[in-house]
Amino acid sequence: MSSQQRPPASTMDFSVSFPAMRGIQAGREFYVIMCPLRYLPRLFHFDEEDVPAELRAQRALNRNRVPALVHYILDNRQDYVFSSLTACVDGAMTFEAQEETGHAHRLGVLHLSMDSHFLINDGQHRRAAIEEAMRADPSLAEETIPIVIFADEGLARSQQMFADLNRHAVRPAKSIGVLYDHRDDDSGIARLIVLQSEFFRSIVEMERSALSKRSRKLFTLSAIYNATQVLLAGSRFETVEEAAAVARRYWEAAAHHFPDWHAVQRGELSAGTARSEFIHSHGIALHALGRVGNTLIRDHPDADQWQDQLAGLAGIDWRRSNESLWEGRALIGGRVSKATNNVVLTTNVLRAALGQELTPDEQRTEDAYTKGRI
């Protein structure tokens, strides 16, 4: 409601006011307010969970998501970031602009009647997390979050708003999340491995987590991240840089035994051809290499020792056409499978080539595989 459409004074006897900006979308006025966090639990609600979905304008709150958000706030107290919430208000609103014309016409104070119902359309998990985080750290109450306010036009409109707000939401690829995450040590390690390696820097896709057939890259940063987590599991390092140096040394030593990787780097073999013809050019192989590398690093702290043992990798026939070896292990019906059992069965091939013993779990998986082939 604009400042020219003031409700009767009696409806605004009790109101709450916020600094606000006024805008227009699809011919409707909306407002962006700066809301102190202490007001969120008092004013802005999400639909009751026991109300049937068809009578709600929001999905049910998933309580399992809230603790991670609470930890994010409290663990990053000095630099957490939350995007704006979206809410509908079904009561009286008045907007007092600073000026009648110019930019200040869109700046002012939004008054919301306390008789209104304030409904969260988007951001109920952030709101729930903020409420819990304030119990642990009351100083959060004085901080603010932007809220986009629309006038409530009924259930159908609110449900459509929810659908529209989420229809085009796209979760960023894991690779770019790893690239841009400066809080997570594992992300920092993966990032340093690639950026400090002349070889891997040229064959690793840093932004996308899926490679097209025409991509010139052989692996994704997310695949390096996942495999390196396995590689360094249980190891202790003083710094991220030290961990990245050990991991980079391992991955470069392993790469020495894959001439096809180097052929891709030199432009003599297309990455698409390598992925279509060889198992070693897929994330499952990196994961398996991480598992056997974890054993090498733990058993042989001296890099010269485990670098020599990697020579066994050269004796593996990695061709996808070698169905007698790979079908049922890395391949299911001719397609590469990332299932846990397939990772283990692929790891078992590498352990045999390197002279490593299988773990009890790996042996059980191997026995089940062998029994199924008889």
Structure, described:
It is a single chain. It is built from 16 helices and 12 strands. The protein has 374 residues and is α/β, with parallel strands linked by helices. The chain folds into 2 domains: 9-167, no CATH class; 174-373, no CATH class. Helix 15 (340-354) crosses helix 16 (360-373). It starts with 14 loop residues before the first strand and ends with a helix. The model is unreliable at 1-10 (pLDDT under 50).
* Overall average residue pLDDT: 88
In percent, how much strand structure appears in the residues? 15-25%
Share of helix among residues? 40-55%
Name the assembly state: single chain
* Total number of helices: 16
Content-based structural category: alpha/beta
Give the topology string: H per helix, E per strand.
Answer: EEHEHEEEEHEHHHHEEHHHHHHHEEHH
Q: What composes the largest sheet? A: 8 strands, mixed
- The number of strands is 12
Global geometry: elongated
Instruction: Tell me the radius of gyration.
Output: 28 Å
- The largest sheet has its strands arranged as 3-7-4-8-2-1-6-5
